[in-house]
Amino acid sequence: MIFVKVKLSNDNVFIKYDYLLKMDNVIDLYCYHKYHHNKIITDGVENMLESREWLNFIYPEKTSLADHSRSFIGNAIIKSIKNDKSLFQAIDRFSDGVFKDQLKTIEKYGRIYIQQSGSYFPKHVDTIEYGEIIESDTYTWPKQIRVIQWPNGEHYYAKIGDIDVVWEGEQKWSCKSEALEKAQIFLNTMDDE
User: Fold this and answer.
1) pLDDT tens sequence across 37-53
2) Which pLDDT band, with edges at 50, 70 and 90, does 150 fall under?
3) Which of 9, 15, 35, 156 is the most buried (most CB within 10 A)?
4) Do 119 and 151 share a domain, yes or no?
5) How far is CA 17 from each of CA 87, 161, 185, rounded to the nearest angstrom?
6) CA distance linking residue 4 with residue 173, whole number of Å
7) CA distance from start to end of the chain
8) DSSP states of 97-136
């Protein structure tokens, strides 16, 4: 597997993505689905089955949608259940549809980039790969620290991959450098495990 950093240019505005899985052939794509993507689907279904959306789907008269699940996959499966006879058929159809769309995208554009969450996009004319290329024998995304501040927010948050950094009970910091420092400490403890 090859992981690359990508930035897209759109009218001189750059969107940067930390390590994405680069796929350019059907064999690698098939292996990705067989050994990794199915776990994403399973996690999405588990999240969905514990969500308010699922309860609302089963008991629409008893629940509201005030709380929302964070699972795109779970929400997509709920929508597709309405057209299928069972949850299993909906999951199978959804997963098969993703694979077929990714395959068509590779055939049309030559490659796709897959995010850790399972979402993906094709290589565009304005796609630029940059930075270190990491080759791996597993579907384990490189551990990348990101520091986030919400628009008009006062605090900084850190993530490593899709994991929220919580250090000594704190999850938000007043400055970017402190969030980065705590994330580095957190990352070092992850490496020790």
Assistant:
1) 888 888 777 877 777 77
2) confident
3) 156
4) no
5) 33, 11, 23
6) 29
7) 23
8) HHHHHHHHHHHHHS-EEE-TTS-EEE--TTEEEEEEEEE-
